[in-house]
Amino acid sequence: MGHWLQRNIIEPGKLPLLLALTAFVLTFLITRVITRLIRAGRGPFGNVKAGGLHIHHVVPGVVLAIVGGFGAVASSRHGLGSAVFAVLFGMGAGLVLDEFALILHLDDVYWTEEGRKSVEAVVLTAALVGLMLSGFSPFGVNDMSQQELNDRGSVISTVVVNFLFSLAVLSKGKTRMAIFSVIVPFIGLIGLVRLARPGSPWAKRFYRRRPRARARSALRAYHHDRRWVGPRRRFQDLLGGKPDPTPDRALGR
What we know:
Keywords: Membrane, Transmembrane, Transmembrane helix. The protein has helices at 2-10, 15-40, 58-74, 80-98, 100-105, 116-133, 146-150, 152-171, 175-183, 185-193, 201-206, 211-240, 247-250, and strands at residues 49-50, 53-54. It is mainly α. It has a domain at 14-135. A hairpin with a 2-residue loop joins β1 (49-50) and β2. It is flat.
C-alpha cells in the first residue's frame, strides 16, 4: 500500500487532490449526519442563527473554498501548505455542494424532492475527481503517446473531437454520460450510438419524421427509468436522508 501510494499519488504530485477528495467526501457525510440529527431533534446540534437569520452551511463553505482555492494557487505544488489548502478547499466544496439545490432553486429545498440534486452533485463530483485521481485526463489526453502529447496539433484535435462527442451526447438528453465522457471518451461513444431520450434536442431534430424511432426512444427511456429510479432514490435516501413528503403525497392524492 505504501509503495502504491508513493508511486501513484505522491510522486506524480496527486497528494493534494487525494486530500481534497477525502476532505470533500468526509465533510459531506459528516454534514449529512449532523443535519439528519437536527431534523430528528436529537443530539446537541442545532441550526446556526445570527440576529434571527438562519446561516446555511454553504456560507462557511464558500469561505473555506475561497481560502483553500487561492491558497493552493499561491502555494507550491509540494509541501505542507498545499496539503492544508487542499483540505480546506475539499471541506468548503463539500459544504457548498451539500446545499447545491438551495443555490440552484434560490430556496430552502434541503429536505424536499428538489434537494436530491445536492446528493447527485456530490456523487457526480466525487466520481469525476476519483477518475482524475486514477489517472484519467479530460478529453482523453491520457490515452495519447508521449510523441502525440508533444505534438500540439494532436492534443488540440483530440480535445476538440472529444468535446464535440460530449456535446452530442448532451444533446441526446444523457447528461450524466456527457459529463463522464469528458473524462472517459469511450462513454461518449456509447452515448452516441444509443437512442436519444424523448424531448431532447437530438430527438426533436432527428426523430421528428421518424415515428418508429420516437416510439423506440420513449419505450427505452421508460424501461430505463423504471429499472433505475428505485435504486437511485434508495441510494440518495441512504446518503442524504429521505425528503419530506409533499402535501399532495401526505394527503394521499
